[in-house]
Amino acid sequence: MIAFASKVEGEKGNNHAQLYLKNVQTGEERQVCFLPNGISNVSWSPDGKHIAFCSLEGEPQPQDPLVQHINQGRHTRLWTVRPDYDVAEPVTPNGLSVWHYAWSPDSQHFGLYYAMGPHETDWYRGQLGLVSAYGGAVHQISQLTRQAFALTWSPDGTRLAYVSGEWSDPDRGGGEIFVHSVKDNQVRNLTPGIDWSPTWLQWHPDGQRILCAGWDRMTGRVALLEESSGTLTTVSDNFLLGERGWPHLSATADLRKVVATHSEKYPYDVWLGDLPIDDQSAPKITWQRRSRLNPLAEETLAVATTEQIHYESVDGWSIEALVTWPDKKTSDINLLPLVVNVHGGPSGVWQDDWDSYRSQALAAAGFAVLRPNIRGSMGRGVAFADAVIGDMGGKDLQDVLAGVEYLVNRNLVDSQRIGIMGWSYGGFMTAWAVTQTPLFKAAVMGAGISDFHSFHAQTNIQDWDMRFLGQIGQPANPLSDAATYREHSPITYASRVQTPTLIVHGDKDACVPVNQAYAFYRALQEQKVPTELVTYPREGHGLTERKHMLDYMQRTLDWFKRYL
After folding, report:
1. Pick from 94, 131, 132, 101: which is nearest to 116 by CA?
2. E strands, 25-146, in order
3. CATH 2.120.10.30 is right for the domain spanning 191-301
4. pTM of the model
5. Topology of the domain comprising 1-60+73-144
6. Dihedral sign, CA of 471, 473, 474, 475?
7. Which homologous superfamily does the CATH classification assign to the domain defined by 302-563?
8. What is the spatial distance between Cα 264 and Cα 309, in angstroms, rounded to a whole number?
9. Is residue 22 a contact partner of residue 1, using CB atoms and an 8 Å limit?
10. For residue 342, which phi and psi values (nearest 5 degrees)?
11. pLDDT at 524 (0 to 100)
12. Residue-wise pLDDT tens digits, 482-538
């Protein structure tokens, strides 16, 4: 039997995904139960007798009038159901939100990463807990100061392993691997100083090793971790894992076979890996491609060449970046225009993958595209990711400028035709960059922050600015640290801007509210800086409607063609 969540057109509750079962042998499908707000995060109990899932509680908040008050919101609750029974049973009490969970090996308990508040921002303050699989109170077992992810139980049920770090986005982070002993509440960091970013874990049946996977600079890595010694043995490297924000595997219980999505010079496909886990010499995963989901794109699109580079930035740090080149030769007489694309997060990362469409579209139009993994990025360990905390717009901007200088000094791009763009944190960096230097002759600010005070007032992740504008372990306060909020806000320095700036934003963005776009647009407009503001109806923090994505890309191309 396969359990899955699905929206079925024409059936009851089709606005929300519901739980279905499919008999693999007969092909028969049936809906198991109905939850008014739908379900997510489906998993079988190890003994196969129950299926767990999460579901949002309560009714949607009335919109007219829209009333807000402390502790208002809808919690995400953990439920179970028996496959042959249509009544779901709550596991966790209402009044706390479950972000991640893991069945214990005996199917009697859950390990949880949960938060007492109902909002997205409460994720930053979550804790580990235990709860009976049959429901009851949640017993907090941790005193975390950072977020946790990728929970996995030791085979004997005595230890819970997880990844922890400081991340800008829920469910998109890598860090160090910890083990929490349930018996005595002792916690060990198995990977202090690790120089890559694990984000997925599964314990080996021998109870002595953990298979982990994650970001390794611009690609992926899979390794076996010895719990006793902390020794890491790489079993797959230079193999890009996962899609978008979470490099991950699906593994059999004995870890001999793993499945992943993988991208090279084509969109993501499914790959099967064989892992000789008991090979005492040097076990390595042998990968085989198992799907070909986008043959049209693979066979017909002329893909521009992308090159990996590295260069020295401030403090002597080496920064890695991708450069996508248009299909023409450069010379001293005809140097290329350059567009710098800054990723989001800041806990994002550029990877050497298919890159959807943006870099390829720009390269096809004749632009070189630089995508630097500036400090704050995943893939280089916790210290590199933490380097941006309290310094947003500081040395991370220097990392961007050093990359531009690297290409200019080698006569590869035209120093007078350089643009910058980015989305989310990249949008903030775009706005920040044009207030700090006249280097950029065109900019496209996507869903970016311009004023941290008003951002804090309206965002759904107010813990983010407090943590990343503060110091490690010491969040900033927008009232007592008002100067910090002003100093890091692009709007403070908007009078300096000379760069023609296109500003694009989703009209329903809860993460970075659209007022951030209006504020920066108004500031530039009143100074007669060439600027346009484009807001997309119905869109949140990322564009989802096809016509909007096409419009955004065309406007971006037109803007850079016009000013570069």
Report:
1. 94
2. 29-33, 40-44, 51-56, 76-81, 89-90, 97-103, 109-115, 127-132, 139-140
3. yes
4. 0.91
5. Neuraminidase (2.120.10)
6. positive
7. Alpha/Beta hydrolase fold, catalytic domain (3.40.50.1820)
8. 18
9. yes
10. -100, 130
11. 98
12. 999 999 999 999 999 999 999 999 999 999 999 999 999 999 999 999 999 999 999
